Amino acid sequence: MSILVVGISHRTAPVELRERFALPPPRIPEALSALRQQELAQEAVLVCTCNRTELYVQSQTPAPEAFAALLKFFHQFTGQAEVVQEAFYTLSEPHSLEHLFKVAAGLDSMVLGETEILGQLKKAYELALQGQFTGPRLNKAFQRAFNTAKYLRTHTNIQRGSISVASVGVELAEKIFDTLRGRVVMVLGAGDTSEKAARALLSRGATSVLVSNRSYERAVALAQELGGRAVRFDDWSAEFAAVDIVISSTAAPHYILDRAKLAPLMALRENQPLLLIDLAVPRDIEPEVNFLENVYLYNIDDLQEIAADYLKQRQEEVGRCEAIIRERVRELLNVPAAAAAPQTPRPAEA
Amino acid sequence: MPLITDRTWFLAAVIVYGIALVYSVFLWRRGFRRDDRIHYLILVVAYGLHLLAMMKRGYSLQRCPTSNLYEATVFIGWAMMSACLGLALVQRFRFLPVFANPVMVGLGVFAMMPGLDTPGGALSYTGVMVSLHAAFTLLAYGAFGLGAAAGVMYLSQERDLKMHRSRILFSLLPPITRLEKVVTWLTLAGLSLLSVGLVVGFAGITPPPGVRYTQDFKVWWSCVVWAVYAVLLGLHWRFAVRGRRFAWSVVGSFAFVLLTYWGSNLASPLHQP
Q1: Are strands A43-48 and A52-59 parallel, antiparallel or unpaired?
Q2: Torsion of CA B167, B161, B242, B103, to 10 degrees
Q3: Is B32 left (phi over 0), alpha (psi -120 to 50) or beta?
Q4: What is the pLDDT of residues A65-106, one digit of tens each?
Q5: Order of strands across the sheet that contains A2-9
Q6: Which of B164, B178, B240 is the closest to A271 by Cβ?
Q7: Rounded to two decimals, what is the model's pTM?
Q8: Best interface-test mutation with B: which of A178, A268, A278 has the largest number of B CBs within 10 A?
Q9: What is the ipTM metric for this complex?
């Protein structure tokens, strides 16, 4: 009896192929029921996200036979006439458990160390648990995977630091302001990235958004979406005294905010800290303003550089996380340390 | 004379503070990414030895040990570390002792210098009011010292933000506006304690015959220190002197206190009889 994994993910297949095997949430209990009816598994959890469709099963059938049957099931259940075996990976113990732990920790994610996958994995497990498709072995394996993911999040840097421009902006704001609650955000230019950054700030507690754009109608539309207030582009500096964070991404060919203009505005706002996020190319804000006291200016390159740095640091943590995972899996399987020592990590078997 | 005196215990405390300082250099180099429980524990051990030294001296004198420069310096350090370790119980301020550690080592080494621990110093002034005056003023300097440590913490964070150093997001240091609040409140606490200490000194202690407070250098020095911190807070609240300028001012003011404290005592007939 062992835990097996059969799956397809962003590592092994392009999106066109992955979407063919993706199952909408309402069909997942149906698939698990079918697995049990066909006696392919005693316990099963089906994980389906935009990047992966994976089946974790507890099976009494020998692994090679079980893999063949599960692959056949996958194709039949999703209605695929063409067999695409090469895009699927099949893993048996202990690699199946190591894979589960890695997925939970975000080590197998497209964005290394992302936390969203843990929530998705928990949902998939809850769904299987509610339908009584899980048993002692999968319950223990999943609980231990969640626990290990939490441990890795706390004790390593695998999930620390942001790797998207919008979230780097939010984290910078949290390094400046005691709390984002009650902070006023001004969006200059209604671009996609600035909208994302503003939304991220709102989700962390910022309460007020002012939107200013050359096209007033667009400003009004975005302000409505963000639950804020539109300001005419000629009047934005009049609102500046109350603003804490500015996200700028206009299409202006020259600086719209320079040191000479900002210095008196800082006096008006009693030198309270000001975070300026310039996402525009060409830049909207003169770099010299960073020399003003209590002004913190970050442009798109700064943010991307920080994001890339974090990604690099996360990559450096992978080896450490994998060693912890191997140790946890060894404990789960009750394998003595000496027996487990010579094992080397293997990539997913395709 | 006992083999292990209170000074021996204090020397041991200074050595352990030194070990903590070496460890704190690693924390600096790593960018304050991990919780520094080890540093905290080393400091707790040092603080225990420090407290033991003070208690032994206090019991032997049967009063608060603040009668000479050695004892005053040990007391200031104790006040600073008490507040520092207390504040560091809050996770966001767990790195505060890292910044206070160098000051503590400096104070410790200074206190151990020969000639500061003069026996029987200031014994002509005794009583509750003298102890209160000394305790309040020395606690005030402890608060100013801690404010300066928080100020250095602010300056370090602020510099990383200005220089766009990516380590800023990995660091576990608190946001700069929170640090600014801490600096402000510690400065206010120090000023309040110093005010009480000075009032107790002026109103509760009678100078010896023929001596006037207005003729004593230390009294003037203390008033200048009081005025410097009062002006600093005034500028901060009334004239929006914030951020880096305020932090530098607090750090600079405490450096002034540290550098002139000894001299002001030496020049004071009342405090260095």
Answers
A1: antiparallel
A2: 30
A3: left
A4: 999 999 999 888 888 888 888 889 999 988 999 999 999 999
A5: A43-48, A52-59, A2-9, A89-91
A6: B240
A7: 0.73
A8: A178
A9: 0.83
